[in-house]
Design brief:
Elements lengths: L1 H16 L5 E5 L6 H8 L3 H7 L12 E5 L8 E3 L6 H7 L4 H7 L13 E3 L14 E2 L4 E4 L6 H7 L4 H7 L12 E5 L8 H5 L8 H5 E5 L6 H8 L3 H7 L12 E5 L25 E7 L3 H4 L4 H10 L1 H22 L4 E7 L9 H7 L7 E3 L4 H11 L6 E3 L11 E3 L4 H14 L3 E6 L4 H10 L4 E2 L23 E6 L3 H16 L4 E5 L12 H6 L3 E4 L7 H14 L5 H17 L4 H8 L2 E2 L4 E2 L1 E3 L5 E3 L3 E5 L5 E3 L2
Parallel strand pairs: 10-11, 10-12, 12-13, 13-14, 14-23, 15-16, 15-17, 17-18
Antiparallel strand pairs: 1-2, 3-4, 5-6, 6-7, 8-9, 19-24, 20-21, 22-23, 24-25
Length: 631
């Protein structure tokens, strides 16, 4: 009952604010944003928020918004967006600079602030700014906008999150839209010489001085933009909350100027062994989950039984055996290295890493490889960040990051995005076939790749094939993007691809993940005939170096190396080479990419979030069952 009363009260307030004839109604279409709606009616988002306060939080499909009438066919104000200049605003509204200056005599046209209101008609001057909505002689406040977080606001004012929380202890657990958040006290405010004399605090100019703008081009993806700007997608979304409604052509994104200069894409791959010149002995420490104490009492028979059932222990031993092969190779060619293996004693719920960092003098080592579990890699990086010791996560992607943390295996979403980015570059028409158990992929496409058509499923989880034909394009390659673990879905995708080709369309089958279902005798031969394209972390090529390694490994271990043994070799050999370069490990990953036996190491800098490997191969099966790298 209380909710109904509140609703009626809000509705009556809106009616008072906008009398009939002064507004119109708009039914929100799927995927629309407030910015798009404002542009459609030639008003500002601020105007819409005034009549529809709930729109600050979100807007839903089929909801009704009240839209104010534009003054003389034009909005009365313009809210400054990232990248706006006085000239661009005047041009946008078909005004001259002189007309705009006359309407805004008190505005510094060379130092516009994001969120500032620029008046577009003669009359009372309005120069309010959402980033400095309340200023007095001792404090500066920030009005919280939709989707903003403590992190994004702290970065805007160049302070730490902890400082921001200390200044606002009453809102640490909740950040309501519209709240006046204290961002600068007298102690922390930056004051110019001129304003010191006037005993006033200057406006924060961090956003203007240290941020650039990026205009989204046709067919661009958030993934591709994040790579180009050297930012993670998480950081882009923090800095540009409007991305929560999807990426739109023409959208203006802001990004820190310094981030764009950190690292460029590593397109040239180099053999680092020829560059190793450091004669001083370097040290690598491995933190691997041997869990020796838990298996010390095992008999030979019980150990054999344990190895059969304990896949985690098998993975550890395989990685370890590959690392030993890399160490032997390095010592044979004279690399001055000291190597220590420590038992991290990892389980899902516990580890010994904090004790090892404290007791084994890890702050003076040159690099740490491991542990395996992401949460323990993050813990080691946190403990060693002040010592600038590189910590390399060998097998898993991490959620928390530190500037000394190196994620050596591309994340699952990065691999998928790399494949999709390849298709975009070829101007492909992408049709996604996603089964009902691949929710993560479906969510990725729905939030970051809205231009991709996802084929609907029937009640039994099968494809609604009739919906595919209208989406085919005669003028482009039609890529059927498949993610499934179902044999039936695979056969359906093969059928749709063949059917499209028979109808005269160019069609290719793209598989996001090669899993066990694809490798069965029933499925695999049919996939090869379709010359499927897929992303891979390994290059699938029997080079002389690969064969030499495989034979040497078999001679030593009585078995051919599996993927974990090869990865153990590749990660270890790459790290060993980099710490022995004159420029050191971090500078090396900024400038040079490598390809080892099977894995590519092409790191990009995520700023304060450390480094991630973007070494993904785009592969294609040939009719003779060989695999060719196509990018």
């Amino acid at each position: 009952m209380n909710k109904i009363v509140v609703f009626v009260f809000l509705f009556l307030n809106l009616i008072c604010l906008a009398q009939p004839g002064e507004y119109r109604k708009h039914v929100v279409a799927k995927g629309e944003t407030v910015t798009q709606i404002a542009q459609q009616y030639q008003v500002t988002p601020y105007d819409i928020y005034q009549l529809n306060p709930d729109a600050k939080v979100s807007i839903q499909e089929n909801s009704v918004l009240l839209i104010p009438k534009a003054v003389n066919g034009k909005p009365s104000f313009h809210e400054v967006q990232p990248g706006d200049t006085f000239y661009s605003i005047a041009k946008k509204y078909n005004l001259t600079n002189e007309q705009l200056e006359k309407s805004n005599p008190n505005i510094d046209k060379l130092n516009l602030t994001i969120g500032q209101k620029i008046q577009l008609k003669n009359g009372t001057v309005v120069t309010s700014s959402k980033t400095t909505s309340s200023v007095d002689s001792t404090k500066i406040y920030h009005e919280v906008q939709p989707k903003e977080t403590f992190y994004s606001i702290a970065k805007l004012y160049n302070i730490s999150v902890s400082e921001l929380e200390q200044l606002n202890p009453d809102v640490v657990s909740n950040l309501p839209v519209g709240h006046q958040l204290l961002v600068k006290s007298k102690k922390s405010a930056v004051v110019s010489n001129e304003t010191k004399q006037n005993n006033e605090i200057t406006k924060p100019t961090t956003a203007i001085d240290s941020y650039n703008s990026y205009v989204v081009k046709p067919k661009e993806t958030l993934f591709g933009i994040s790579k180009e700007l050297g930012l993670s997608q998480v950081e882009l979304k923090e800095l540009n909350p409007e991305l929560s409604n999807g990426l739109q052509e023409g959208m203006v994104l802001r990004f820190p100027e310094k981030k764009n200069k950190v690292i460029q894409s590593n397109t040239t791959y180099k053999d680092l062994s020829k560059s190793v010149r450091v004669k001083e002995t370097k040290e690598i420490v491995f933190l691997l989950p041997f869990n020796v104490s838990s298996i010390a009492s095992d008999t030979t028979l019980s150990m054999q039984a344990r190895l059969k059932r304990d896949s985690f222990l098998n993975m550890t031993l395989d990685f370890y055996s590959g690392a030993l092969m890399a160490i032997d190779s390095a010592r044979r060619i004279g690399m001055p290295l000291n190597v220590r293996f420590l038992d991290s004693k990892e389980t899902r719920n516990n580890s010994d890493v904090a004790n090892l960092v404290a007791s084994k003098n890890l702050k003076n080592t040159d690099a740490v490889i491991g542990p395996f579990y992401p949460q323990y890699v993050e813990k080691v990086a946190q403990l060693l960040k002040d010592s600038d010791v590189p910590v390399i996560s060998p097998l898993r992607d991490t959620s928390k990051s530190y500037d000394n943390l190196y994620q050596s295996m591309p994340s699952g979403d990065f691999v998928k995005n790399s494949m999709i980015d390849y298709l975009y570059k070829r101007n492909g028409n992408i049709i996604a076939l996603i089964d009902n158990k691949r929710n993560a992929t479906r969510k990725l496409l729905e939030t970051e790749h809205r231009s991709i058509y996802i084929v609907p499923l029937n009640e039994k989880g099968g494809l609604l094939a009739d919906s595919i034909s209208p989406k085919l394009d005669k003028n482009r390659v039609n890529y059927f993007l498949l993610d499934t673990g179902s044999t039936g879905m695979i056969f359906a995708a093969l059928n749709q691809c063949s059917k499209a080709r028979s109808a005269g369309y160019k069609a290719e089958l793209v598989v996001l993940e090669i899993n066990d279902t694809f490798e069965t005798d029933e499925v695999f031969p049919r996939l090869v005939k379709q010359n499927i394209i897929f992303p891979s972390l390994t290059k699938f090529q029997d080079t002389p170096e690969n064969m030499q390694f495989a034979n040497a490994y078999r001679k030593k271990n009585n078995v051919f190396p599996n993927q974990y043994a090869i990865r153990g070799f590749d990660v270890t050999f790459d790290v060993m080479q980099r710490i022995l370069l004159p420029e050191g490990f971090e500078k090396s990953v900024q400038t040079t990419a490598t390809v080892q036996l099977e894995n590519k190491f092409d790191y990009y800098n995520r700023g304060d979030f450390g480094y991630s490997n973007k070494g993904v191969f785009i592969m294609q099966y040939q009719d003779d069952y060989t695999v060719t790298e196509i990018e």
